Amino acid sequence: MSSNEKAAASAVRLPPSTDLRALGPGPVLQDGKSNERAETLRRLLEKGHAAVAPLREPKLILHSHLPHAWSAYFLGASVEQLEELYEHEIQTLVPIDGTFARGAVITRENWRKFLGQKPYTVAYVDFFDQEVERNDRDWENVLRDYLFSGPEPLINGFIGGLGHPFIHLSYAWELQSPTVATEALSLGCTEYIELHGLLDQYPPDNSTYKSTSLAGIIKRVHDDNRFNDLFTDPGITNMGPLLQNRFEALLEHWNAWQVTDPLQQLEQCCDVSVLLGIGTGDRERKFDFFLIHTMTVAHGLRTLWHLFPEEQRSCILRQYALFVIMMYICQLRPAFGVDMIDSIQTVKLDDDCDWEAVVDRTLKHRWFKDSHFFKVVRAPKAFEETYGKKGDFYFKAVVKFLTEFDGWEGFGLGIEGFVPSRDGYRPE
Predict the structure, then answer these.
(1) pTM higher than 0.90 for the full model?
(2) Cα-flanking dihedrals φ and ψ of residue 130, to 5°?
(3) What are the boundaries of each domain within the chain?
(4) CA 262 to chain CA centroid, nearest Å
(5) Segment 67-81, tens digit of pLDDT
(6) What are the CA-CA distances from residue 161 to residues 61, 178, 414 (Å)?
(7) CB of 365 closer than 8 Å to CB of 402
């Protein structure tokens, strides 16, 4: 690492890394566990699977967040709260009807023909449901067959759709749900990002520096004036102009990140995501909707890590880094330096403030029905369960979020047919 790169990396403090040399599965909904909450959850999963499409309006651009709402289950939501969340979320989703392509239109021979085509969102679910049945309900085997095989594995396009295929798939594992797994595969197919080619076969290395620090890379992106004045507003619609006008500069920073220790660098990704998702927000500026996805996708990677073949883990991390760099640029590169961690570490904790109190506060929060709200609380909690307290870094991040959160920002002008200030959720 050059002296300049050392300076950039040292300007962004992260909590101390652990010495984990192995990472086991996270908690799951146990098979056969019979109680009213678990039975309600399973019933609602099946009900939603049969009733609504994985994509929603406008123009099937947005996504169903039904499984994401079940983060509330892992935080202890009651039967009544689970029912309430379902009834609220289902109102925004697209009922499965005769307007969707269905059934045998997708086969084992032609399934790749329709990649990236959103009208086939339900047809892909039908197809993968059939594949699960054909594999005697062994849905994990279906995942292995379709995610990781061939010269252009499907997993290499999973950052499409704001990384929702990764997020959805992680819920499939946590919920041990083949129906959520087939929805995740459907999302992976319809959101298959064209940039998958960068992962299928790495492009020539055009980097001008090298670093194993993702935080250092983000700092270099922040300081790169080639991205100045590229956009006037934040938002996902900046992705097209970014790729059209600054593709080589984007690749330069992406190629600079060296994955030499995937397990340690997964932890680094999780910590960087907390800084980007929570450290950049506050009550005045609100919290950036798109940057928060860097954290929920990182949580998904941690959840799925043991399912990823060892030989593909570095590539999956590089895909995540590409996602983070693109989101950061599209959101106008908010300040990212030493003060980021201070915005979390300086949070004051009351003597009686612990995870039990925080979870109780979460379940009673006025933003309870927001489909992203619980994910933001769960991700740092899962990171602490994996990597330890780190001076209460993750816990303080959640306290900061619960104390200061009063809505999402970062949408810019929105997308055609969806204006967040008009169409997004606001509590009464």
Answers:
(1) yes
(2) -65, -40
(3) 3-13+202-224+243-339, 36-196, 344-410
(4) 18
(5) 888 889 999 999 999
(6) 8, 21, 15
(7) yes
